[in-house]
């Protein structure tokens, strides 16, 4: 085990004269960032987000795109929707029929034969035909050249595509208020045939239905979500400020409110559970119900509220038991939080540093998201041969520019060269999945780097407070800016090294999740078991690396050493003070976690009553939503992230003071020659902790051993 540091009369806190650390990793990180910019530029030059915004017709044109002739034709119309029942729809994501952009979907049944006899109907029918069709052409010529569909079916737009307007009357499937229709060739078809093929045609985009509704909910409620997040930010800031001046009182208020909020949650779940008693369908089990896209369905089931009530009750019991068993340790942890409050009082700008971290993370996330969209839309349109009769060229790639004069058209006269999907066979397209992987990996690396920068900056500022013998005279004028400058100037390589290790573990976890998703239908239980063990091991490894990195950054901020040396020193220092880690550091983390839980609970309860319309005062104000759980969940997650950002200042302050405290105990002995740098309050905490630990050890001894002691 590494030896403790000896007394050094020249040591006055974070080392000012230091050199650059982990230079190789710094250079590697800079090169990786430059390559990331190159990937972004390449993606932006090749990608086209319009491919995911607008539907594409058979010519590869975008329906509804502003500034084009199709600007006023936002909907995609299928000539023969019956062909969409083909299994090729599932393979190629495209119906093997002509598709064109239209202004409106057809609203009536009509065949070309019937429309041809009436000029008014024919003018309406022509809006769903290709250019070049005229009344002078015969019906067989029109159909042979594929200029018009054989029939029109009443349709409604769905994801900007025209699909049959299906309904039910007396339990019978109908389309356009009729259960039978003419398919344009003189045959009468049943409406249930359309229902069957529509399910096949939309199987690829059915998953998007929920996503589209969620997106619509966001467009309706985004400003209310922002208000909720602002409330969470103000609550967090208010709580931190009050904690600065009223640490002891606020901690006990926080504990009481957490118990009350969770208790109310249990009461509310019980009332909902009791209210559904006797309601039709309320006794259906979750297993029988299965997965439902509309999550509000689950709230009509008694078993859902029973599960919520049990979960909250378990959480409540665990928290109360922890508070009972840790009641003496809580007093010590509260004293440590008070000391952290004093430190933050000298470094007040640290409370606003999370905003800087949020800004940097927002830039990283935005760059990753934009690059991912452009990479995923950088494929080229692929056209394939579609035909009704047998043809050896069926489904082969074709070029629409010269298809009419090509050999394939000559051998298959009834074939068409239609847009199929987006793809490509160039070197760029072959390595597109590799570029996406690089985009994800650099996103994780940069995000972890930003987080690490915040940790080292705060650690350096709070360490300068601790090691200042006369506070604040011996502290830098601007501790946060001084620490940020040191971190970027000397320790970019160390930050990159630590975040690289963490990102590598995280990308392995992503790959394991991907493999697990692929193997869900596999019957090999041994492989599933091994994969589950690997996922568990790498989860534990990620948690350990995060803990080690955090303490390594603190040691680097103090002594200016490289990552490996700092990680080793921090690890052995914590091992030599293992009991204090459990008694002081982790109990304090528990109290701060309760603070986050309180803010999330308060904002979450408010969001629930607002968006669900349970309170009459908000009925007219709350937006009309498909799923009211969408903004609630967003506000809850966002509130936790915001609260975590603000409380991370306190958490980092406590961790830094704790490591400095342990270093101070090993360097000094409290004498006049080697005085402690810790404040009298911290000395009192130490005395309480040692007394409590000694008392616990005496309790564990046998009576005769205790008497001997």
Automatic annotation (TrEMBL):
Question: A cellular component term (GO) from this record?
Answer: plasma membrane
Name one molecular function that GO assigns to this entry.
antiporter activity
Ranges annotated as spanning the membrane: 21-44, 222-242, 249-267, 305-326, 346-370, 442-469, 490-512, 590-613, 625-647
InterPro entries according to UniProt: Choline_transptr-like
What reaction gets catalysed by this protein?
A: ethanolamine(out) + n H(+)(in) = ethanolamine(in) + n H(+)(out); choline(out) + n H(+)(in) = choline(in) + n H(+)(out)
* Keyword check for RNA-binding: no
Membrane topology field? Multi-pass membrane protein
Its family remark reads: Belongs to the CTL (choline transporter-like) family.
Recorded hits in PANTHER family, A to Z, give: CHOLINE TRANSPORTER-LIKE (SLC FAMILY 44), CHOLINE TRANSPORTER-LIKE PROTEIN 2
Summarizing the function annotation, the protein's role is:
Choline transporter.
User: What is the protein name for this chain?
Assistant: Choline transporter-like protein
């Amino acid at each position: 085990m590494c030896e403790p540091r000896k007394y050094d009369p020249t040591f006055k806190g974070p080392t000012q004269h230091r050199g650059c650390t982990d230079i190789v990793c710094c250079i590697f990180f800079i090169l990786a960032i430059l390559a990331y910019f190159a990937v972004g530029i390449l993606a932006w030059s090749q990608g086209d987000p319009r491919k995911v915004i607008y539907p594409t017709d058979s010519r590869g044109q975008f329906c509804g795109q502003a500034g084009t002739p199709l600007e006023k034709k936002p909907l995609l119309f299928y000539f023969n929707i019956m062909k969409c029942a083909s299994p090729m729809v599932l393979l190629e994501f495209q119906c093997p029929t002509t598709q064109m952009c239209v202004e409106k979907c057809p609203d009536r049944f009509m065949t070309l034969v019937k429309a041809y006899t009436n000029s008014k109907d024919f003018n309406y029918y022509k809006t769903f035909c290709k250019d070049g069709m005229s009344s002078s052409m015969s019906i067989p010529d029109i159909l042979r050249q594929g200029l018009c569909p054989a029939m029109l079916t009443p349709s409604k737009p769905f994801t900007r595509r025209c699909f049959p307007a299906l309904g039910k009357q007396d339990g019978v499937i109908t389309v356009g208020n009729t259960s039978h229709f003419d398919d344009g060739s003189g045959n009468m078809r049943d409406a249930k045939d359309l229902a069957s093929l529509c399910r096949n045609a939309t199987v690829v985009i059915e998953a998007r239905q929920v996503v589209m509704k969620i997106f619509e909910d966001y467009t309706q409620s985004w400003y209310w979500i922002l208000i909720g997040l602002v409330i969470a930010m103000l609550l967090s800031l208010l709580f931190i400020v009050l904690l600065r001046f009223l640490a002891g009182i606020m901690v006990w208020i926080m504990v009481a409110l957490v118990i009350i909020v969770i208790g109310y949650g249990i009461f509310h779940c019980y009332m909902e559970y009791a209210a559904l008693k006797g309601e039709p369908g309320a006794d259906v089990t979750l297993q029988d119900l299965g997965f439902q896209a509309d999550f509000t369905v689950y709230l009509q089931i008694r078993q859902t509220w029973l599960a919520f009530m049990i979960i909250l009750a378990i959480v409540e019991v665990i928290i109360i038991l922890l508070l009972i068993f840790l009641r003496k340790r809580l007093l010590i942890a509260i004293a440590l939080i008070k000391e952290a409050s004093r430190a933050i009082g000298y470094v007040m700008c640290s409370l606003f540093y999370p905003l800087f971290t949020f800004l940097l993370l927002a830039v990283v996330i935005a760059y990753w998201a934009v690059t991912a969209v452009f990479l995923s839309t950088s494929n080229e349109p692929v056209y394939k041969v579609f035909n009704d009769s047998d043809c050896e060229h069926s489904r082969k790639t074709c070029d629409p520019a010269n298809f009419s004069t090509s050999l394939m058209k000559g051998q298959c006269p009834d074939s068409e060269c239609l847009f199929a999907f987006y793809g490509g066979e160039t070197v760029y397209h072959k390595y597109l999945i590799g570029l996406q992987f690089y985009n994800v990996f650099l996103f994780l690396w940069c995000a972890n780097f930003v987080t690490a920068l915040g940790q080292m900056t705060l650690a350096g500022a709070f360490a300068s407070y601790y090691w200042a013998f006369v506070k604040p005279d011996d502290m830098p004028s601007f501790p946060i800016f001084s620490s940020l400058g040191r971190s970027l100037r000397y320790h970019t390589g160390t930050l990159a090294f630590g975040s690289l290790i963490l990102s590598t573990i995280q990308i392995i976890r992503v790959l394991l999740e991907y493999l697990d998703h692929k193997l869900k239908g596999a019957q090999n239980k041994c492989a599933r078991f091994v994969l589950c063990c690997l996922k568990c091991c790498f989860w534990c490894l990620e948690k350990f690396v995060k803990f080690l990195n955090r303490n390594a950054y603190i040691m680097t901020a103090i002594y200016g050493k490289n990552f490996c040396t700092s990680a080793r020193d921090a690890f052995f220092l914590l091992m030599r003070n293992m009991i204090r880690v459990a008694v002081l550091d982790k109990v304090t983390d528990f109290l701060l976690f309760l603070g986050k839980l309180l803010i999330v609970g308060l904002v979450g309860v408010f969001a629930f009553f607002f968006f669900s319309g349970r309170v009459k005062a908000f009925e007219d104000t709350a937006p009309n939503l498909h799923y009211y759980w969408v903004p609630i969940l967003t506000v809850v997650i966002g509130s936790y992230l915001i609260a975590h950002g603000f409380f991370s200042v306190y958490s980092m302050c406590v961790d830094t003071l704790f490591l400095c405290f342990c270093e101070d105990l090993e360097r000094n002995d409290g004498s006049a020659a080697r005085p402690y740098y810790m404040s009298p309050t911290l000395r009192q905490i130490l005395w309480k902790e040692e007394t409590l630990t000694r008392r616990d050890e005496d309790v564990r001894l046998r009576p005769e051993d205790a008497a001997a002691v």
